[in-house]
Amino acid sequence: MTQQQRQACERDKQQNEPSQKAIAQQQQRACERDEQQNEPKEQLNENNQRSIAQQQQHIHKQETQETVPNSRSIAQQARRNREKSEYERTKNISNIPNKRSIAQQARRKQEQ
Q1: What is the mean pLDDT of the chain?
Q2: Which residues contact 1 (CB under 8 A, 6 or more apart)?
Q3: In the chain, where are the structural domains located?
Q4: Residue 96 backbone phi and psi in degrees, to 5
Q5: DSSP for the chain, written as a single string
Q6: What is the distance between the alpha carbons of residues 92 and 79, in angstroms, rounded to a whole number?
Q7: CA–CA separation, 78 and 81 (whole Å)
Q8: pLDDT digits (tens, 9 = 90+) for 44-80
């Protein structure tokens, strides 16, 4: 290698070094930018998972409420049943004439 060739080679190395530094810096900035952009995605993913878990709990709560009656609905149903049976009892009693009404009807017939 001649002196000129060595100098040209040194010159090329010196010229390439800053560009390699610049490339390394660009890559570093790109990595940092990617990390910053990925952080909100990870946070969103956590929020989505939390939201999905809450929705599943809510759905499970609805399912159990629909299938298992709570104490209020049981009490309401029992009250309705009592009122219904009480009504049925009184309705039947009023349809059956008692001894007094039978005697009154017999007197009316005799008077006519």
Answers
A1: 76
A2: 9
A3: 3-111
A4: -95, 115
A5: --HHHHHHHHHHHHHHHHHHHHHHHHHHHHHHHHHHHHHHHHHHHHHHHHHHHHHHHHHHHHHHHHHS--HHHHHHHHHHHHHHHHHHHHHHHHHS--HHHHHHHHHHHHH-
A6: 20
A7: 5
A8: 677 777 788 888 777 777 666 666 667 778 888 888 8
Distance (Å, whole) CA 38 – CA 25: 20
CA distance 11 to 16: 9
pLDDT at 72: 78
Residue listed under structure tokens 């010159």: 11
Instruction: Output the pLDDT for position 43.
Output: 67
**Residue 102 carries which side chain, given as an amino acid letter?**
I
What is the distance of C-alpha 70 from the center of its chain? 20
* Arithmetic mean of pLDDT, 36-51: 71
